[in-house]
Structure formats: structure tokens, C-alpha cells
Amino acid sequence: MESVWGLGGLVLLRDSVEWEGRSLLKALVKKSALCGEQVHILGCEVSEDEFREGFDSSINSRLVYHDLFRDPFNWSQAGEALPGGPLGALRALCRRTEPGPVTIALDSLSWLLLHLPCTTLCQALCTLSQQHSPLGGSPPVEPVRVLGLLHMELHGPGPMGALSSLAQTEVTLSGTAGQALAHILCQRPRQHPTHQTQCFSILPDFSLDLQEGPPLESQPHLDPHIPPVEPTTHLTFNLHLSKKEREAKDSLTLPFQFSSEKQQALLRPGPSQATSNIFYEPDVYDDLDQEDPDDDLDV
Amino acid sequence: MAAAATCGTGAGNQGCTAAAAAGKNNVTSFQRKGPRASVPDSGCARLVSIAGTRPSVRNGQLLVSTGLPALDQLLGGGLAVGTVLLIEEDKYNIYSSLLFKYFLAEGVINGHTLLVASAKEDPADILQELPAPLLDDNCKKDFDEDVCNHKTPESNIKMKIAWRYQLLPKMEPGPVSSSRFGHYYDLSKRMPQELIEASKWHGFFFPEKLSPTLNIEPCSLTHGYIKLLQFIQNVIYEEGFDGSNPQKKQKNILRIGIQNLGSPLWGDDICCTENCDNSHSLTKFLYVLRGLLRTSLSACIITMPTHLIQNKAIIARVTNLSDTVVGLESFIGSERETNPLYKDYHGLIHIRQIPRLNNLIYDVSDVKDLAFKLKRKLFTIERVNVYRVGVGQRERERESQADSTVSTEPTVGLNLMTLRSGPESKPKVLGARQLLETREEHLSSRLLILTQAERLCMGRRFFTAFHIFNELPCKGGCICLQTCQTQ
To answer: CB contact, 8 Å: A215 with chain B?
Structure first.
């Protein structure tokens, strides 16, 4: 879970009907509030009172809540609703300029996906999570962490794939037999993605309790019926030499290694000592006639 | 060496190295004007050569390097000027961004003008992360240490070469100077700042151009694409890449790099839904881009997340509209990661399309199963699985059941084709001619070869020659022992 914290950027919390993710979202919000960061919450699915329930007053005072639940389309015209609707609220979050590390929790991304076109939402998320140099030129110091709650069953593969390609970390919630599991896929830019599984539970005061997870027993990708392919089984030559064979091979003088004795042998004009012998046994088909066949021609 | 003095913009060291080379080679100061007197880059004597390009040996088409000499070889010598290289991204966009950076780094080294367009990263940041070029003196040392780190202790014995090729010089990696076509880069180091600053580049960062209060009227092309096309057109016109400003000094190549085209960050929703309103937006963009490129001296690389595109018909249309298409498939997260056939590699590379430019025939290499590997400093492309020698029909059936994509064409004999983007090069395919030539030299060794059996051996020349020349003792039951006598 520390890797979730270390990286900035977009963190997707993908939950499902069986394993809900809002409590994990609230636990992460509480953790960042306790660290002293600024926390902004864009609430769309549940009311503000329901979201703040369970937090004690110190944490509640640190949360800056932007409420889109009560009046998303600004019908009451009382001036309390956020101008510009959900898109305006997102863009307002992009434009805030207070220094310091910031955590922005989007509750939930599914609601935003259903109300905004996917491309606009992706562009806004990218601007949100990459907010290093608002004035240009200054190096990024504080990470911006965007936590987005996404209900996996509501969306097709298209939007899910698009959002996954934007996210730096994806936390997929599942579980077995009452124990919640989080599959965390961390992707640092230009590095290999790392995958880990973590058992956790959320305590009633929304603090996160990490436990040592049971190791996964199943290895689904090794099919027992098909044995692993060994590429060197049917070769006609020997790739593994024994020590004696290797010595014999090493002591062999190759025809192109021009050692000094070979040079002497070639230079010495000894007729009896021929370095090359051709042993020729004539065939049925070989013509042994030494005469030049062109002699018959009258040229 | 007058033709060599046509330096591109900004790289002042090109002329110096070319002049130094000229000074070394020539004995007199009289220089004969003719095709032989000029640098090997230029096609004919009169043509002023552009730095970093060369004509193709097959049809004379002007080529630029993609930054990766192994990929250049697979594409038939390089990327033709005026065409698009489309790279289908791998799932986590790790390796395709490497190819993108190689392309841009090659442009910086050759002094070409760069145009970098991205919707996700600032182009200035992309340029900061280009790999450093490998210099002449310490590059061989780096490659050797890189190769040695990966060798198993068994194979540490240097192979003794019994052929005539032992005396041939090894292929040199080459200096950094742009008189060479295709350079090598070190991925563990960044390109020095002065080279980047000396290069000329234009950046297009889409979120900056997108003003939120703009009222976008619906149009056939997505807003992002329109802006990008206008930007490219402006750069081509103002810098004179299409010949519109003939009084400009020297011709140069514009290298265009577009990252993540088709992703939702450009405003295109082909990755989000299957039935999108603007499904022709991307194809129209590619069509207009091709028109811009064909009329100017430019080459373009585009990376596209095709694994996210929901409508497969769009992928087919995009492939047809691009010239060269290369697909990368990484093994991360897939079941091939544990397959022992692929344990040395990081992914497969598919050459999906090679263009027919002014030609009737393709320039396709006959190697179909290529894989890549990312070492610490190098990105290498190799042919999968050298050990397919002598694999019979049974094994091919078994492996096709096990769902491997290694090619099933009979790879008999000495197909030790290794296309590395490193300096060492062994001779590639050993044909029958070389075997017959070395037969005489072998008769002077201790080998005794009978005539009829010799004919038999030459009939089976691949197997027996392999045994003889590699001095590997045969396993029992090999046909070589029946016909020849070795040692």
C-alpha cells in the first residue's frame, strides 16, 4: 500500500458489488488528512453528511467538500451549487494554486463517466494529475494524488481501458471468504509495472489495517496437460559435451589456425611428407580416361 | 569532398569531421569531381546530399534512419522520406516510447529539425529523456561488458572459427559523426544538454492549445487533429520543407513525432466506445497528414494505442493509410512470460506492413518471428529460437498445439540470423557456395573424404558441414558418421 502512497498521479480504485470501495476511499482520505495534506473531495454519489459520517471533527475540518450530489444540474439556482456542473467543478480543481501536497478524491468516477463524455473526462483527469508546474518552469515538488472510485460493472472495456492507460496505480478490490484483497498494479512511467496483492481490512473509524496476505496457491497459466516445450530435444548433434569430449575438442587444431608447425610443414618442400592425402576410390560412374576429350576436335 | 560540406542546421561538428576525413584520405589537394570522389551518402555527383539520408540500394528512394539499425534492416534500409511509420503500442507503452525516442535522438544527431506532438507529456520533457549517442572509443567496451554480463559460464569459451571468415575484420560500430547512417545509443545515459539545445525543434502540447472556454463547433475532424494539422502545415511552410522558400540555405529533413495518437487525450473517442460518432476522424487525419508528408521533405513516426481501439475495422483502415506499420507485443502480464521459448525476450515485434513506393515488389524480409529484448543499454531485435535446427514435423505439430507463434517454416541448417543493434556481426546465412569454397581447404586438413560419399555429403551439405565445421562430436545415429570420417 505504500507504493500507492509514494507515487502521485491517478489512483483508480476499482470496486464491484461484492466488495465496495468507498470505505477504502475514506480510509485513504483519512490517512492523507492525518498527514497534513490538503484534501478536496468531489462528492457526486452520496450526500455530504453520509460521506463525512465516521470521521472525527479534526479530520472533517480539513476536508474541503465540493458537493455535486444535492443539485448537479443547478436547478435550485440558489447559488450554492458549483458553477459549470461537473466539468466546471473539475476544471476549478485544476486551477487551484495553493502550494503543498494535495489529495483529490473523486467520488465517484463512474458518476462522472456517465455524465461527461469520456474524452473530456480523460483530458481533465490528465490535467489534474499532472499538475506540476502551474506557472511553468518550476520543477514539480509536491505530488498531486487523485483517488478515483470506479465501479467496474458499470462500464464496458472501452472506458475502462482508456482510464487504465491514464492511471499510475490501479487497485482492484476482490476477496475470498470474508477477507478483502487488493490487487495493486503500479506503473511508474517508463518502467515495468509491478503487481502485488495485499490483504486489508477497514476498521470502524476508517483506519486501514494491512495484513499479511495468504499466498496464492493456484498458478493458472501452467496447464498440466501440455508439458513445457524443450527446444533442444530432437537435435542431431550434441550440445552438452562431457569433460573428455571438451578437452578433445579444444586440443583439436582447426584447419585455419595457422600454427607455426603447420607453417613449417607447408614451407618445407618434402615430397614424401604430404600434408594432404586424397584417397580416391573410383566409382562405377567415374571416367578415368586421362586424355583430353578436346583432342579429337580438328581445331 | 565538396558534397560533404553541406552541413545541416546547427551541427557544426559535421563539417569538421568530414573535412578531417577528407584530409586524411587524399594525398594531393587535387580532387577529382565525380561519383567516386564524394561521400558515400550522395547518390550521384550533382545531387547535394542531405545530412543523415542515403538512397536506398534497391530503388534509389531517399531513406532516413529510424535510430535503430536493426529496425532499419528489417524495413529495407530505413524509413523513406515522405512516409509514416506507425508503431502499434504495447500494453503499457514502455517499448514504443523507446522507439519514439530513438527516432528523435537520431534526428538530433543528424541535425534534422524535430516536431514533437503529444497530448500527455510536454515535448520539452520528452526531449530531455533522449538516450545518449555512443561514441567511438568506449562503445566497444560497453558492448562487450554488456554481452558478458548475460553470458552463462558455459558459453564463456570464445568460439574458435575454423573458416576463412576468421581473418575478416569485424564490423566497426562507427563514430558519432553524421557521415554514418544509423547510430547507436546508450539507454542508461541521457543525451547531453548542448546537443539538444543545438537542435531545432518545435513542440505541440495539446492541453496548452486547448482553451476550455472555446466553443467548438462540430466538425468532421476532431479539434485536436485540426490543430495539429495546422501546426504541422505551418512549420512545413515557414521552414521551407516543401520547397516553398527556395532561397533558404540547405535542405533539411523534418522529423515529426506524434505520441499516443487516437487516445482520448486528443479528444478522439475511438478508444472509449465501439460505435463512435467521429469514427472517421482519425483516418481523415492520417490521409491529410500523408498529403502533407508526400509534398515535403519529412518523415513521421506515430505511436498509437491500438490495443485500446474498440472497433477493429478502424485498425485495419489505419494500417492501410499508413506506410510502414510495426507492432509491438510485450510479454508483461501474459502467459507467454513463463513460456520457456520466450524466456530471453521481452516481447515480439511484428512488421505488419512495408510500403511499395515507386515499386512493384515489396521489400519484405523473410524473417517472420522476431522478438525484442531490452537490455540495460540496448534495445535488440533478434530472431526467436535459434534451436529450431532439425526440428521435424512432429515437433512442429506439437508446438502449434501449445500455441506458440514461432514460425513453422522449416528452418534447416545454419539460419543463425541475429540482427543486433550492436557492433558485433557474424556472417549471416551460410550458403552452399561458401561450403563448397571451403571444401578445398578442408581437404588439406586431416579429413578423409571419399568421392561417392563426398557427393552424398554435399547432398546433405547442411547437416554434415555443420558438424565438420563446428567440430561438434556427433551423437550416435547421426548420418554424418556413416559417410564421413571426422578427426
So the answer is: no
Is there a contact between B82 and B294 (Cβ–Cβ < 8 Å)?
A: yes
Residue A152 C-alpha cell reads as 467496474
Domains along chain A with CATH numbers? 2-131+141-210 (3.40.50.300)
**513521421: which residue's cell?**
B300
CA of B408, closest CA in chain A: separation in Å? 14
CB-closest option in B120, B388, B450 to A126: B120
Q: How far is A274 from chain B (nearest CA, A)?
A: 10
Classify residue B365 as exposed, middle or buried by CB count within 10 Å of its CB (0-12, 13-18, 19+).
middle
Of A158, A231, A237, the CB nearest to B274: A158
Query: Does the ipTM surpass 0.90?
Result: no
pTM: 0.69
What phi and psi values does residue B80 have, to the nearest 5 degrees? -75, 145
Judge: domain B83-142+181-392, CATH 3.40.50.880.
Answer: no
Q: Which pLDDT score is estimated for B482?
A: 47
